[in-house]
Amino acid sequence: MHRITTNMFFNLGLLTFGAAIYSLGIKDIVVAKGLMSGGVSGVALLLYYLTGVLGPGVYYFLLNLPLMGLGWLSLSRRFILYTVYGMGILSLFMQLMPERALIADPLLAAIFGGAVMGAGSGIMLRTLGSAGGTDILAIWLNQKYNLRIGQFNFFFNLIVFAAGLTFYEPTLVLYSIILSYTNSKVMDYFLALFNQRKMVLIISDKSDVIAKDIIHTLKRGATFLHGAGAYTGKSKRVILTITNTVQIKRLEELVFSHDENAFFVVENTFNVLGEGFSRRKVY
Fold this sequence. Notes:
Elements: H1 2-30, H2 39-51, H3 56-74, H4 77-96, H5 106-125, H6 134-145, H7 149-165, H8 170-195, E1 197-203, H9 207-216, E2 223-228, E3 235-243, H10 248-258, E4 263-269
Antiparallel strand pairs: 1-3, 1-4, 2-3
Helix pairs in contact: 1-4, 1-5, 2-3, 2-7, 3-4, 3-6, 5-8, 6-7, 9-10
């Protein structure tokens, strides 16, 4: 029960932190320069620019209501409940944060605004929920029609920017495309940063003692794979373990302290699910 509660507060905390960062990019950089973003937040900004009433947070909340209904009927309750919170807190921050033109140059605003928004999005997507918006529709279409999530988001954003061309200067729309591109790249970077792991294969004649040290000293799991030398035909037990970038140097020192002739093979990996690592995100 304690673990469930801790995990819940961790997810809610990340959603809140990510929403605050995303809203900072929207209100203090993007809206202040009259730029657009992709997704439902982009539609909300378009409506706000056209009407001049309410606020982007209110429009974002209203546009998400039918999407939340769709998600409630077709996706997991856990994902939707976390997403309802993420959407609500993001709408609140977008509405309450003041508009301040932190960056005067529109190109720099597009680049840094996209970077800040991408960081916020990446943090929110590392939780068991999301910020709502096109995420819900994209996941639903993926499950029902096998349409790729990235493909849907790309075409949806094309429609948003095409609509923007009918109301705004082409230069502003082009800056907005730069913003959207930067947003997606930084978001991908944050997703990889949070989940970057190292898969390590260790070939040694002292595999037993090395495996014990991995388990008891580094507090990591280890698995024996059965192999054989191609030249000698001698059977060997190969150790497979997963660690993070912080512990990789300690693991290297541990292995070579036992066997200076060991083989130590490291492979980068970005999606490790299971005990001690990320939990599977159920949609």
